[in-house]
Design brief:
Largest sheet: 4 strands, antiparallel
Structural class: alpha+beta
Organism: Streptomyces luteolifulvus
Strand order of the largest sheet: 1-2-3-4
Protein name: Calcium binding
Number of helices: 3
Number of strands: 4
Strand content: 25-35%
Radius of gyration: 14 Å
Length: 104
């Protein structure tokens, strides 16, 4: 991801993702679409001390965006805002920060 984006830059990303959205659900779908399109997956990160591979992102019922993480045969969905990102963060991680700024 490189440098930290300013609030104005994050607001611009949110505006891009939600330009045609009329309510929170449509805004969430817009943000999910941008994360899904721009976040470079797969990538590895560490969750609770365990190395996992983030395979994809998904939008679950109940209006939350999750990262689908795998390790061996196991698979777990983790809220994208709770996911510790590796350093350096994968390309497209700025969209996660825009989602955080939007505030679910």
């Amino acid at each position: 991801m490189g440098k930290q984006l300013s609030e104005a830059q994050l607001d611009e990303l949110v505006a891009q993702a939600t330009v045609d959205a009329y309510d929170d659900e449509e805004q969430l779908t817009g943000l999910f679409t941008m994360i899904a399109e721009h976040l470079a997956v797969p990538f590895e990160t560490v969750v609770l001390g365990v190395k996992v591979t983030v395979k994809k992102v998904d939008l679950l019922p109940g209006s939350r965006i999750v990262a689908v993480c795998t390790r061996d045969r196991h698979r777990q969905a983790i809220g994208i805002l709770d996911l510790p990102l590796p350093d350096p963060a994968p390309e497209g991680a700025e969209w996660i920060e825009a989602y955080r700024r939007w505030g679910p």
